[in-house]
Amino acid sequence: MPEIKANQTLDCKGLACPMPIVKTKKAMDQLEAGQVMEVQATDKGSLADIQGWARNTGHQYLGTVEEGNVLKHYLRKSSPNEARDEKKHPHVVSAEELQRKLAAGEKLTVLDVREPAEYAFGRIPGAVSIPLGELASRIHEWNRDDEIHIVCRTGNRSDLACQLLAEKGFTNVKNVEAGMYGWTGPTEKRLSKKGGTQDGGSGRTE
Amino acid sequence: MEAAAGPNRMKAKELARIVLSKEELFILDVRNESDFNDWKIEGESIETLNIPYFDLLDGVEEAMDRIPAGKNLLVVCAKEGSSKFVAEQLFEAGRTDVHYLEGGMKSWSEHLEPVKIGDLKDGGSLYQFVRIGKGCLSYMAISDGEAAVIDTLRMTDVFAGFAAERGAKIKHTLDTHLHADHISGGRKLAEETGATYWLPPKDAGEVTFSFEKLEEGRDITVGNATIRIQPIYSPGHTIGSTSFIIDDRYLLTGDILFIESIGRPDLAGQAEDWTGDLRETLYKRYRDLPQDLTVLPAHFGKVAELGEGGRVMAKLSDLYRNNPGLNIQDEDAFRRTVTENLPPQPNAYREIRQTNMGKLTPDEAEQREMEIGPNRCAVHDR
């Protein structure tokens, strides 16, 4: 069971509306793009409000874990270049095609380059988690001719990952177009024994 | 009196007065969009704008541009904190006529406005309690120092206080049926005042407490045998639903018949089974009653149903003319109307039914949370 890693934890326990969101906004302003924040709150209303705030500001709401009375909300600060259209890795695969290949039992690796917290709240079954930032240092875990399909939330980070691997001489790397956003196949989640998890959706906030 | 050093607090009671007297008011609702779309403050002269408070953290300029100048302004949120936060910013930005709602939608949902329906033949009066924020209606009949409360809401102190002010002792509390949209205060009020709690036995198969059975022929009297409450078995919304005739003049229909709609049969999970009962009650049993009875339902769906001073009432004959639910001649069309394309079910309706059976005992904060939102007991509520 993967652990949900956050770069920062913000304590809003005991605070009533609007303070959890006011504090979250201030803390997110200090965070670097791509980093993940855990917001701990006891105000039940914070769930819908943090989702609404993230949707309206463009930050990514990942999900919420309930532990006793405490709601742990996970947010990822979006980076401005995620939406930018730059040089693209030429080899792509659609979500449908990947789903077909997996269903047919083809031998391939699905590499998920999102943050562990994103991965924890919903991933393609069997996908391997290596955040984009760690990819360069873990590149030796594969052979250069392995068939690797790389996925992220929308297809941007995975495109960068494909380009990185291609530069290092990998010849059979494909970017999963539209990422988890376009994925309609089965997903698996972090299994939670106590409390439930609430899915943040596939990230339609960009 | 509050000094003009900041925004003014407005109580739910004052807001109720404004809604009922149709005074102009501009409401800035700062809850998130989904909560707002689900349920909001309505009134014929109320204009509403929704901008979530979390979109106003960097300043209220956007909101200022969209709020008409010179209108009485009220900021509303779920509990109070966020509306006060926004109202203070609006005040600093120059809107000195700004209010925020004390206790937020929570208080609005719990506010009860008592209105007199009429005098009873041998002395005494019948009152309606309008829960404007949620659309629930309760009744109190008072005669000669005794009172009976019908479809008591959870805010029992309001009923106890109202009876005490009129020197009446509450002898009976009655529920027309096992409610699914709100938590009944009938049993609690009976315990607090030593009254007898009455329920239709067919709705009470699973209850964990003792009660008196509401059955046809078992009339209930209040005062010196002056008011007769006559139970009429009228299934359809639930299998046990029972109407009351008070004083041969008033027909309390519970959730079977409303002013502009009819009850839905699906909240206890048996829409198909109860459709026939509902039709039988509406198209036969009520037809056979004197048509000059005044119908007093347990709910209203829209503020347009509020009459003079907030009263919700209509003649039975008028409803047979105007209520769309009483004018579906084709049985199949009727079945489709009451089983298909129904509005969403009330918030936490399963848990509310369990609570009303005594199987769940949520604390007050939990009860409040369960009751959030509109009642949605009618087939035409959208």
From TrEMBL, chain B:
<dbReference type="InterPro" id="IPR001763">
    <property type="entry name" value="Rhodanese-like_dom"/>
</dbReference>
<dbReference type="Pfam" id="PF00753">
    <property type="entry name" value="Lactamase_B"/>
</dbReference>
<feature type="domain" description="Rhodanese">
    <location>
        <begin position="21"/>
        <end position="117"/>
    </location>
</feature>
<dbReference type="InterPro" id="IPR044528">
    <property type="entry name" value="POD-like_MBL-fold"/>
</dbReference>
<protein>
    <submittedName>
        <fullName>MBL fold metallo-hydrolase</fullName>
    </submittedName>
</protein>
<dbReference type="InterPro" id="IPR036866">
    <property type="entry name" value="RibonucZ/Hydroxyglut_hydro"/>
</dbReference>
<dbReference type="GO" id="GO:0070813">
    <property type="term" value="P:hydrogen sulfide metabolic process"/>
</dbReference>
<dbReference type="InterPro" id="IPR051682">
    <property type="entry name" value="Mito_Persulfide_Diox"/>
</dbReference>
<dbReference type="GO" id="GO:0050313">
    <property type="term" value="F:sulfur dioxygenase activity"/>
</dbReference>
<keyword id="KW-0378">Hydrolase</keyword>
<comment type="function">
    <text>Counteracts the endogenous Pycsar antiviral defense system. Phosphodiesterase that enables metal-dependent hydrolysis of host cyclic nucleotide Pycsar defense signals such as cCMP and cUMP.</text>
</comment>
<dbReference type="GO" id="GO:0016787">
    <property type="term" value="F:hydrolase activity"/>
</dbReference>
<dbReference type="InterPro" id="IPR001279">
    <property type="entry name" value="Metallo-B-lactamas"/>
</dbReference>
<dbReference type="InterPro" id="IPR036873">
    <property type="entry name" value="Rhodanese-like_dom_sf"/>
</dbReference>
<dbReference type="Pfam" id="PF00581">
    <property type="entry name" value="Rhodanese"/>
</dbReference>
<dbReference type="GO" id="GO:0006749">
    <property type="term" value="P:glutathione metabolic process"/>
</dbReference>
